[in-house]
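A reminder from the course coordinator: this example appears on the midterm review sheet, so study it carefully.

Given structure:
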């Protein structure tokens, strides 16, 4: 066993540094800029039940310590994803590296997406990730992230429908995020993945208008890392399910800090935009660290700051 090997429930990854969904394409787009074999895994860009054109431009802009974005889950829908995109992802990434991120408006839509993916590619992917931060037709954006009963129902239904490991990715911005995570942890979910991105906005001084076409959008990058750290710290005390942190990780030290707070793995998102080869650099830093510290396994650090 390698000292960086990482277990998220039934899923086993070569290291704890994961390419976060929406920031790593479908892997293959990154191949000429980075060494994909150094990624623990890549969560592919979320595919939704219906194709989505995304939000009006402008969709991404810089803010101090990060970026603000509002993409609106643009994607071509499941037919194109399964027929055209998945074969390319499979050609760039190994089986243990592919996490398929899905989202729907209803539990039934999520479940059907999981089933279609697993029927076709179940023996060639590591896990499915339920992106719970997306809109819901009846109950509004973030329903499956802020309603503990709905979140539990969603994850239980997906777990019952497919054999592969299931991750639940949710937005921790709602006051009851610990209650939601606790409810989800009772389903036997393999990992709880946190998107710790608070909403923000930016005004264009010249136009005297909001910069984003959608007016508001989540803020990500180093500016939000302390927020993510606190939420991982609190989640680690509340649930015993493996946690994945995302929010501002861009160095190996950031990954170690998140692990000490309680994360078993860390998603690296927008740090890849200016530095597409950042994940291999982070992994090399972790390898040097375990050597220096004479650790048999990096996983001994998970939650160590609580002890
Ligand atoms: C441009 C952009 C697109 C994103 N698209 C998705 C997505 O499709 N699905 C998802 O679960 N998260 C998406 N995210 C959230 C990231 O996966 C990640 O959780 C978030 O950016 C925080 O990590 P970071 O601070 O390292 O960027 C997106 C983020 C950005 C910046």
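Designed residues:
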């Amino acid at each position: 066993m390698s000292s960086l090997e990482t277990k998220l429930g039934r899923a086993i990854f070569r290291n704890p540094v994961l390419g976060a969904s929406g920031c790593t394409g479908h892997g293959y787009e990154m191949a000429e800029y980075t060494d994909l074999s150094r990624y623990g895994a890549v969560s592919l860009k979320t595919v939704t039940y219906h194709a989505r054109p995304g939000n009006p431009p402008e969709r991404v802009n810089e803010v101090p310590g990060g970026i603000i974005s509002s993409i609106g889950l643009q994607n071509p829908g499941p037919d194109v994803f399964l027929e055209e995109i998945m074969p390319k992802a499979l050609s760039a990434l190994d089986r243990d590296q592919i996490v398929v991120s899905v989202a729907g408006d209803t539990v039934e839509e999520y479940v059907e997406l999981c089933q279609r993916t697993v029927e076709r590619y179940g023996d060639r992917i590591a896990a499915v990730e339920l992106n719970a931060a997306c809109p819901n037709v009846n109950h509004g954006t973030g329903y499956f992230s802020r309603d503990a009963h709905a979140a539990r129902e969603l994850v239980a239904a997906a777990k019952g429908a497919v054999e592969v490991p299931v991750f639940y990715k949710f937005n921790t911005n709602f006051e009851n995020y610990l209650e939601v995570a606790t409810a989800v942890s009772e389903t036997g979910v393999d990992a709880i993945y946190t998107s710790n991105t608070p909403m923000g906005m930016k005004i264009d001084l010249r136009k005297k208008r909001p910069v984003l076409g959608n007016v508001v959008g989540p803020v990500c990058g180093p500016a939000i890392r302390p927020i993510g750290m606190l939420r991982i710290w609190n989640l680690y005390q509340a649930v015993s399910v493996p946690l994945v942190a995302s929010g501002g990780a861009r160095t190996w030290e950031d990954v170690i800090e998140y692990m000490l707070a309680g994360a078993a793995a860390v998603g690296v998102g927008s740090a890849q935009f200016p530095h597409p080869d950042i994940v291999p650099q982070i992994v090399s830093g972790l390898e040097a660290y375990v050597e220096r510290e004479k650790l048999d396994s990096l996983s001994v650090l998970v939650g160590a700051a609580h002890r």
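The domain at 6-306 is CATH 3.20.20.70 (TIM Barrel). The two ends are 25 Å apart (CA to CA).
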